[in-house]
Amino acid sequence: MKIKTAAIAAAALFGVCAFAGCKKTTYSVYTNMPQSSYTLSDKSYKLAAEIGGYCAEQKQFEDKDTSAYTSLGRYFFSMMADAYLVVSDDFTKDGAQENYANFNKAVSDVLNEVDKALSSTVVNSDVSRFNDAAAGKTIEIREITYNVLSEAKYVYNLTDGCYNPALYYNIQAYGFGGAEDFPHSESELPSAETVAQYTDLASHFGEVDLSEAEGKFYVKKPDYTVTVGEETLSMKLDLGGIGKGYAVDKIDGLFDEYGYEFGYFNFGSSSILFKSNVKAGSWNLGLSGPRSINRDAYLQTKVRGEKLSTSGDDEQYYKIGKTRYCHVIDPATGKPVQTGIMSVTVIGGGAAQADALTTAIMCMGKDRAIEFIEGKLTDRKVTFTCE
Prior knowledge:
This protein has 387 residues and is an alpha+beta fold. Helix content is 27%, strand content 28%. A 9-stranded mixed β-sheet has the order 4-2-20-19-16-13-12-6-5, with helices on one face. Strands 1-17-18 form a 3-stranded antiparallel β-sheet, with no helix packed on it. A 3-stranded antiparallel β-sheet has the order 3-15-14, with no helix packed on it.
């Protein structure tokens, strides 16, 4: 399986022509970002339409003397993904090293908590226990799982089901989500009947019931099953993407709690927190793409005090013939997304919601995505690319 790891941000780029004289492919860009806030830096990408409605209030930042600041970084691994933390501060002042050590421990604790609660590959995690439970069963869960599932249900309803974390079996069937192998030929792809059964099961995600009583949190699994072959299946969840975003939101709070204004946190290259840049205030962000061998940027913008999420069909994919099969599953078809949208980037707002929103927009297709962004995402900057 081809796994394409994004740099500090991700989005979409251009196809490379292998032979001299052939026609270069042009891709389309759709964005609600103010025209003065970005530049298209590759001629293979053309602005197809400006999306209206963006009206978020811009944050104000005070100038600060950072001449004595240096930067420290640390690597983490959680939810089967790399994570990078960079903090800039005056580490020579009294208590600075101890504060930094405590901050690192707090970040590590958040990532461990997220992993133990939400990872489907961790034995006895909340998600694993949900997945193993019988249909209709209620189980006690951690508060973090309750919060993430609440976010997931909110975006599921907001997007009319275009984001659906219950597509576990579909993801596995196409060779993603930690599956042992992936199809190598059309004959190895899951049958239409099997996909339809998996998709039917996932369509009941709205029936997941959350409750709280006396400081404890619970989730009830939908009392619904399907039969595939001779096996009866109940719903299973994959909260990997939105879980990473939730961790980024929590770590953003830790930056503030420990008094850090400068740095960033990059979780899996798909969910990123940008605090202020110690040298320039803002970060120069280049969005790279699914058709670029060199990960060159097609769009340049500046970010500061914002969180970013990206989904694309280049991160995990394989090809059978001329068809690309990626890890983003369309809830409408139960198959890897084929809407023509190659990548989506959302900047601003909470990272957990942004992670779910980028997935949903990829599944919407161009026209529906534009309508959705104009009507419901006026507080976030959104860019998507199409073939």
